[in-house]
Amino acid sequence: xxxxxxxxxLAEGKTAAEVGxxxxxxxxxxxxxxxxxxxxxxxxxxxxxMAEDHPDADxxxxxxxxxxxxxxxxxxxxxxxxxVGLVSAGTSDAVPLGEADAVATEMGARTERVEDVGVASIxxxxxxxxxxxxxxxxxxxxxxxxxxxxxxxGLLDAPVIGLPVSTGYGHGxxxxxxxxxxxxxxxxxxxxxxxAGFVAGAQAGxxxxxxxxxxxx
Amino acid sequence: xxxxxxxxxLAEGKTAAEVGxxxxxxxxxxxxxxxxxxxxxxxxxxxxxMAEDHPDADxxxxxxxxxxxxxxxxxxxxxxxxxVGLVSAGTSDAVPLGEADAVATEMGARTERVEDVGVASIxxxxxxxxxxxxxxxxxxxxxxxxxxxxxxxGLLDAPVIGLPVSTGYGHGxxxxxxxxxxxxxxxxxxxxxxxAGFVAGAQAGxxxxxxxxxxxx
Amino acid sequence: xxxxxxxxxLAEGKTAAEVGxxxxxxxxxxxxxxxxxxxxxxxxxxxxxMAEDHPDADxxxxxxxxxxxxxxxxxxxxxxxxxVGLVSAGTSDAVPLGEADAVATEMGARTERVEDVGVASIxxxxxxxxxxxxxxxxxxxxxxxxxxxxxxxGLLDAPVIGLPVSTGYGHGxxxxxxxxxxxxxxxxxxxxxxxAGFVAGAQAGxxxxxxxxxxxx
Amino acid sequence: xxxxxxxxxLAEGKTAAEVGxxxxxxxxxxxxxxxxxxxxxxxxxxxxxMAEDHPDADxxxxxxxxxxxxxxxxxxxxxxxxxVGLVSAGTSDAVPLGEADAVATEMGARTERVEDVGVASIxxxxxxxxxxxxxxxxxxxxxxxxxxxxxxxGLLDAPVIGLPVSTGYGHGxxxxxxxxxxxxxxxxxxxxxxxAGFVAGAQAGxxxxxxxxxxxx
Amino acid sequence: xxxxxxxxxLAEGKTAAEVGxxxxxxxxxxxxxxxxxxxxxxxxxxxxxMAEDHPDADxxxxxxxxxxxxxxxxxxxxxxxxxVGLVSAGTSDAVPLGEADAVATEMGARTERVEDVGVASIxxxxxxxxxxxxxxxxxxxxxxxxxxxxxxxGLLDAPVIGLPVSTGYGHGxxxxxxxxxxxxxxxxxxxxxxxAGFVAGAQAGxxxxxxxxxxxx
Amino acid sequence: xxxxxxxxxLAEGKTAAEVGxxxxxxxxxxxxxxxxxxxxxxxxxxxxxMAEDHPDADxxxxxxxxxxxxxxxxxxxxxxxxxVGLVSAGTSDAVPLGEADAVATEMGARTERVEDVGVASIxxxxxxxxxxxxxxxxxxxxxxxxxxxxxxxGLLDAPVIGLPVSTGYGHGxxxxxxxxxxxxxxxxxxxxxxxAGFVAGAQAGxxxxxxxxxxxx
Amino acid sequence: xxxxxxxxxLAEGKTAAEVGxxxxxxxxxxxxxxxxxxxxxxxxxxxxxMAEDHPDADxxxxxxxxxxxxxxxxxxxxxxxxxVGLVSAGTSDAVPLGEADAVATEMGARTERVEDVGVASIxxxxxxxxxxxxxxxxxxxxxxxxxxxxxxxGLLDAPVIGLPVSTGYGHGxxxxxxxxxxxxxxxxxxxxxxxAGFVAGAQAGxxxxxxxxxxxx
Amino acid sequence: xxxxxxxxxLAEGKTAAEVGxxxxxxxxxxxxxxxxxxxxxxxxxxxxxMAEDHPDADxxxxxxxxxxxxxxxxxxxxxxxxxVGLVSAGTSDAVPLGEADAVATEMGARTERVEDVGVASIxxxxxxxxxxxxxxxxxxxxxxxxxxxxxxxGLLDAPVIGLPVSTGYGHGxxxxxxxxxxxxxxxxxxxxxxxAGFVAGAQAGxxxxxxxxxxxx
Lengths: 217, 217, 217, 217, 217, 217, 217, 217
Ligand SMILES: Nc1ncnc2c1ncn2[C@@H]1O[C@H](COP(=O)(O)O)[C@@H](O)[C@H]1O
Ligand SMILES: Nc1ncnc2c1ncn2[C@@H]1O[C@H](COP(=O)(O)O)[C@@H](O)[C@H]1O
Ligand SMILES: Nc1ncnc2c1ncn2[C@@H]1O[C@H](COP(=O)(O)O)[C@@H](O)[C@H]1O
Ligand SMILES: Nc1ncnc2c1ncn2[C@@H]1O[C@H](COP(=O)(O)O)[C@@H](O)[C@H]1O
Ligand SMILES: [Mg+2]
Ligand SMILES: [Mg+2]
Ligand SMILES: [Mg+2]
Ligand SMILES: [Mg+2]
Ligand SMILES: [Mg+2]
Ligand SMILES: [Mg+2]
Ligand SMILES: [Mg+2]
Ligand SMILES: [Mg+2]
Hints:
8 copies of one chain form a homooctamer. Chain A is of the alpha/beta class. Chain A folds into 2 domains: 2-71; 83-216, Rossmann fold, CATH 3.40.50.1970. Chain A has 8 helices and 9 strands. In chain A, helix 1 crosses helix 2 and helix 3 packs parallel to helix 8 (197-216). Chain A binds chain F through residues 2-5, 82, 136-137, 154, 156-159, 161, 183-184, 187-193, 196, 199-200, 202-203, 206-207, 209-212, 214-215, 217, and chain F through 2-5, 82, 136-137, 154, 156-159, 161, 183-184, 187-193, 196, 199-200, 202-203, 206-207, 209-212, 214-215, 217. The complex binds adenosine monophosphate (4 copies) and magnesium ion (MG) (8 copies). One magnesium ion is lined by residues 89, 118-119, 142-144, 146-148 of chain C.
C-alpha cells in the first residue's frame, strides 16, 4: 500500500481465476484487497478464493458499485480525522462514486454522500450545501454535460475534485463533454480521468490524510 | 430577407472595400444592412460607403459587439409582440450575444439582456429569474465549461437555445467544451455552433415571430 | 413533468427489472410513463409491471421506434393548438423521429409526418412543401451527409430543428457528418445531438406550447 | 506534364523569388506554367520572371482565383471534345473552383460554370439543371455543410466530383463538415480533399480526356 | 435504378426478414437486386424470398465478398464498351473490391482484377502495369497505410479512384490512415469513404458509361 | 476574492486599456490585483494605471512568468502554515509554474521551487526528493511527454497535481500528450488543463489553506 | 521471409480454418510459421493443421502472449551475435512484448527480458540498469501514460524503440496517451504503433542483424 | 552530450538573445553547438555571440535547413565506421532531412543523401536503390500521404526510420496522414514525430554508433 492508498485490482479485462488469485495475494501481502469493476462471476471468484485461502477474512460486496472489499483477520483499519464529501447527480454516477467512497474509506477518512442533486433542479443542491460545507475535500461526479463540479465549487471553500462519468451518447458522449467541462471550469477545480473513481477517491484520501495529520500535530 | 431574417454580411475574411460595397447593395435591395465581426477599418468602410451612396441612411455602430446596422431612409422596421431573452456569464460573451440581440431586434422582437450571471456565483443568476420568466424564448451564451444554458433551462418554461462561445484554452478550449456540454445537456435545449450569435438570434427571432403572429390571430 | 416535458426513461443501459420499476413509479407520480430505446425484453417488463401495479393503465407500444407510452387511468392528456412537423429521408431515421413524435404528442401538440423525402430525389420533397408550410415548428431528421434540414429550412418560414441520425460508416459515420453539417448549415437552424429524438421533440413541444398559449391569449 | 496534367506551382509557402524561378523553369521544360494560390507579390514575381526570361510568353492573371497561367510562345494548347461542369454556391468557393477551371481548361476541356446555386434556395439550382445535363463530368464545390454535391448528383447522369471548401467556423468549420458530408453522401460521388481545386479539376480533366478520346475513336 | 446504378440493399443493420423482403421488392420494381454485406443468415433469407416470390430468378452468391446478385427472368443486363480496373494489395481488401466489381459489372462494364500487388513488393505491381494500362478507369483498394492508389496513379493515364479499406489497428487504424493518405496523395486521385466499395464501383461505372457512350457516338 | 483565491486578470485577449482598468478596479475592491499572461505593453498599462489611481500601491513584475502582482497600501497578506512544492523539468515550464507560485503565494502559502529535474536525467530528480518530502502538496509541471508528475508522485506521500505545459510539436504537441499522460498516470494524481498554472496554484492553495487551518486548530 | 523477418500470420479477424491453412503454407514455403493474436480455437487449428500436414514439425505455443511458433523439420534457425532487450512495466504489456520477443528470437537474436519495472517505483528499474546496458538495442513496452521508454532511454547508450500498449481507459486510453508520449519524448527514441509488438521486435531484429554482421566482419 | 547525441538548441520560440547565449554556453561546456530552426535573425545572433565569446570557433550555416553548427577550437569530431542513408521525395522535406543529416554527421556517421525520389515516379527511386543498399540504417522523410518509407523499406535489408513532414493541407494535412501512414506501414519501420528530423538523425546515429563499434571490435 503506497502512500496509504490500497492496491486495487481492476477486475475488468482479467479472467475470474486471475482476479481471485490476485485478491488472495493482496490479502496475504497487505492485509486487505479492493476489487473494482467486478461482475457477478468475478465477485464469486473472490468469495471462493477467500473461502479457500482466507476463511477468516471479512468480505464485503457492493453490487451497485461493482466492488468487493476484503479485510484479512489481522488487518487494522486506519483512521483519519477528516471528511471526504461525495456528490452526484443521479443513479448513473453510482459506480465511480462508489469506488471513490470505498477508497477514501479504506484510507480511513469519514465520507459524506450527497446524491441526486443534478443542476437541472438547482434547488435540491442548495438544500444540501450545509452538509457539504462540513467536508474537508469534495469529489463531485458528473456525467452528461458535467456542470455539477463547477456549480459545487462555486458554493464551497474546500478543494473540489471533478470526476467525469461516461454517460451520454452522440457528440461528447461517454464522458467526453464532462471531462472537457471540468478542465474548462470557470471555478478552481482539479480533475481525474473519465470513470476514474478510484483515483478521485485516493487523491481525496491523500488530501484528507494530510489534513488529519495536521489536526493531530 | 428570407424568413424575415436580415441578410448579414460577415466582415471577417473580406476586404474593407468588399464589405462597404456589400453593405451598400444590401441597403439598396433590402432597405437595410447588418454587418458582423467588423473591425475599425471595416466599420469605417461601411460608414464611407453610406456617406457616398446612402447619405440619408441611419448608421448604428456597436463597437463592443463589432456590429454595424444600417437602415435606409425608406426602411420600415418590423414589430413583433414577443420577447427574446439574452443571457451571458460575462464580458467575453459580449460579441456573439450582441449579434444575437441585433438580429432578434432587426426581426422586430423585444429583447431583454441578463448579463454577468455565471454559474460560479449561482445567487446572481437566481436574482434574475423573474426577468427571464417574462421571456418567450431565451438565448444563453456559454464559454469555458458551458454550464449556464443547462442551469437556465432548468429554471424556465420557455424554449432555450444554447450559444457556445469560443473562450477557454487547452483541452476543450475555443468553445469545444461549451459546444459539447450544450449538446449533452441533462435539460431540454437546442444548440447552435460556436460563436454563431447570428444563428441563435435568428432562430429565436423565428420562434418569436411565430408566437407574435399567434398573439395577433 | 418539468416544463410539460414528460419524464422519459431511457431503457438502454438499464436492466429490464429497473425499467419496469421506473415505469411504475412514473405512472404513480406523474400519471404516465414514456420509455425510449426499449428492446423486446424491456418492453415486456413494462407490460408486466403495469399488469401487476396499474392494471387499468393504457399501454401503447411502438416497435419500430422502440417506444412504450403508458397512461394511467386518471391521466388527462394536455392539448395544444399548434402543429409540429416531422421530416425524414427514409426508414433508418425511424427511431429518433418516432421518439420526437411521441414526446411532442405527449406534450399535446398535433404532429404531421413527412417521410421518404431524401435530398437525392429533390422532387419528392418539393411535392410535400405545402404540408410542411402548415406546421408551426419542424423537426428534420438527417442521417449520412445530413443535408435535408438545410434544404427544408430554405423552403419554410417556421423554425426548424435539425436532428442528426447515427447512420453512415467510415469517416463522418455514426451521425458525425450529419451533426457537423447541421451546425454548419447555410440556413438558420438549431440542432440537437445525434439520435436525440427525445430532445428534438421536447424542444419542438416547448415552442408549440408557447405558440398554442399565444393563440389562446 | 504527367497524364496531360500541367505541373502546378503552389505559391503558398514559397518565397516570391522561388515562385518566379520555378515558373520560368516550367515554361522552359513544359512550355507553360500554372501558379496557384499566388498573392500580389508572388503574381508580380511571375510577371517579372517572364519579362526577363520569356518576354514573348502569354501571361494571364486571375486575381479572384489567385492564379497565373503562362503559355510560352511555342506552346500548343491541347483540345478535348468533352465538357467539364463547374458548380458552386457562392463567392467563397471562387478560389478552388477557379483552380479546377484553370486545370481542366489547360488540359483542353471545355468548361461550363454554374454559380450562385446554393441549396438554401433550391429553385435557382433547378433553373440551371439543363446546362449541367450537357456536361460530361461535373465538379461541385461545397463549403459550410457541403450539401450541394449530393443534391446535384441526384439530378444528373454524369459522374460528379465533390470539392469541399474551407469556409465555416466553429465545429466542422474549415471545410471539415463539407468533406465528411461528401464522403457520406447518399448519392454516388467521389471526393477530393478540402480546397483541392487543382486535384478536382485534374481528375475531371482525366475523365474528359478519356471521353474525348472515345469520341474520336 | 438511378443513373444506371442498381439500388443496393445494405444488409448490415437490417433483419434477415427485412433484407429478404427488400430484395423481393427490388426484383419486382427494377428487375434485379444487389445485396451487400450479407452474412449467412441474410444470404439464406434472400434465397428463400426468391424461392417463394421469384422462382425463375437467377441468384448468384459471392461468399468472399458477402454479396448476393439476383436477376429476374425479364432482366436485360446492360452492356458498356469500357473496362473498369480493380486493384488490391491482398485478401483483406476482398470485400470492398468485390462490391466495386459487382456494381460495375451490373452497370454493364467489363472488369479486370489485379490482386496481390501491395507496395511492399513493388516488382509484383510493375509486372501487371500493362494489364492496367488497358483499363478506362481504375479503382484501387488500400488498407493499412494506403500507399497503393498513389503508386498506381503514378503509372497510369486513366483516372484512378482510391478506395480505403478498414484494415490496420492502433493509430490510424480502421482505414483512417488509408483515407487520409488518399486525400493527401501527391498524384491526381479522387476518393470514396472507407469500405465504400459500392460507391467506388458505381462512380467507376458512371465514368465507364460516359466513355462507352462516347465510343458508340 | 472567492475561497481566498485572488481574482486574476487574464491579460491575453484583452486590450492594454482594459487590463489597466481591470487592475485598478481589483485593487479598489479586493485590495490587490494579479495579472497573468501580460506582455510588455500590458505590463506597462498596469504600471501606468497604478501610477495614476493607486500611487502608493506595491507593484511587482515577473517578466519571465509574464505576471504583475499589485498590493494596495492597505492590503494585508494572508499567511498559511503549509508549504506548496513546485516542480518543473526546465525553462519552458516557467510561465505556468510561475503563475502557480504567484497564486499560492498570494493565498499565503510558503512555496518551494524544484526546477530542472526532467525525467531524462533521473538522478537530478532523486537528489531533490528530500526537499519535496517537506511539502504538503506538490504541483508538477510537465511539457512534452508529461512523465514527470507520475515519477514524482511515485516518490512522495503528499497529494500531487499535474500541470501539463503546451510544449512539443507534431502529434500530441501543444501539451496534448502531457495532458493525456497525466490523466492516464499509473500513480494517483489529479490534473488541471494545459497551461492552467493559475488553477493548479489555486487548487494547491486551497489544500494548503485547509492543512494550515488544521495545524492551527 | 523478407529481410530475415519471418512472415507472421495475424490470427485476429481470420477464421480458424484460414489460420490453419496459412500456417501450413508458411511452413511449406519458408520452413516455419509465426502466428500472432491467436485464441484457443485458432491455436488448436494450427496444431491440427500441423498434425495433418507437417507431423514432424516442432510446435511451440505461448498462451500468455497468444502466439504459436512452428519450425518445420528442415528449418535451420538463424543465429545473430547481438542482444535485444525487452522491458515492460507489468503483466498487461505481456502480449505485445511476447510478440516482440518471438520475432527477435526467430530472427536469431539473443533476448533479455526486464519486467515489472514501471516508473511508479523507480528503484526497481534502477536495479536492472546493468542488465539493460548489456543489450545492443532495447524495446520498451508502455501502457497508460507511457513514461517508461523515456526514462529507460535516459539511462542507456543503445537505441531504444518505444512500443505503446493499449491499456488505460477514458481520455488517452487504449494506448493513445502512451503513443503520443513516446512521439513527444524528451529523449531520443523511435516508435511503433499501439500494440505493434511484431513490428517493434522485427525492427530491433533488423538492427541486431546489422550489428551482428558487423561483429562478424 | 548524452549518448554521443549533441545537445541541440531549438531556436523557434526563443528570442535571438537567448539563442546566442545558449549557443555560447554549449560551446563552452560541450565543445560545440547545434542550433535548429533558426531564422535570419537567430542565425545572426549565433554568429555575433561567437564573434564575441569564441572568435576561433568554426561556424557553419545551412540556410536551406535553417541550421547552424559551431565547433569550438578544441572540439574533436567523432568518427564512426557506418553510413546513414537520408531519403526524400522533394524540396519540402529539406528542413527535417537536413536536421537528420546534421545530427548524424555530428555523431560521426557518414551520410548519403538520395533526394527527389517521390513515389509518384517510382522509376527514379528504383535507379537509386544500389546507393541505398550500401547504407547501414536509412531515414526516409515523407510529406503528404507518406508512402515513401513503406516503399523504401520494401526494397532494403537495413532498418528504416520513417520521418513524417508537415506538408499537405486539408484533411490529414500538416504531416498527419504521413505520420499515420508510417505507423500503419505494411513493411517493418519505426517512426519519429512530425518534422522531428533531429530525433530521426539521432536515432540513426545511435544505431550507426553501435554498428561502427561492432565493426571495430
Ligand atoms: N432517448 C432519449 N434521448 C435523450 N434523453 C433521454 C432519452 N430518454 C430519456 N432521456 C432523458 O434522460 C433522463 C433520464 O436519465 P437517467 O436518469 O439516466 O435515466 C430523462 O429525464 C430524460 O430527460
Ligand atoms: N455497401 C454499401 N456501401 C455504401 N452504400 C451502399 C452500400 N450498399 C447499399 N448502399 C447504398 O445505400 C442505400 C440504401 O440505404 P438504406 O435506405 O439504409 O437501405 C442504397 O440506395 C445504396 O445507394
Ligand atoms: N492564467 C489563467 N489561467 C486560467 N484562468 C485564469 C488565468 N488568469 C485568470 N484566470 C481566471 O479567469 C477569470 C477571468 O476571466 P475573464 O472574465 O475572462 O477575465 C478569473 O476570475 C480567474 O479565475
Ligand atoms: N501482431 C501483428 N502486428 C502487426 N503486424 C502483424 C502482426 N502479425 C502479422 N503481422 C503482419 O501482417 C502481415 C499479414 O497480414 P495479412 O495479409 O492480413 O495476414 C504479415 O506479413 C506481417 O507482416
Ligand atoms: Mg451532470
Ligand atoms: Mg459559463
Ligand atoms: Mg439525409
Ligand atoms: Mg430551437
Ligand atoms: Mg496498402
Ligand atoms: Mg472520380
Ligand atoms: Mg487535487
Ligand atoms: Mg529504430
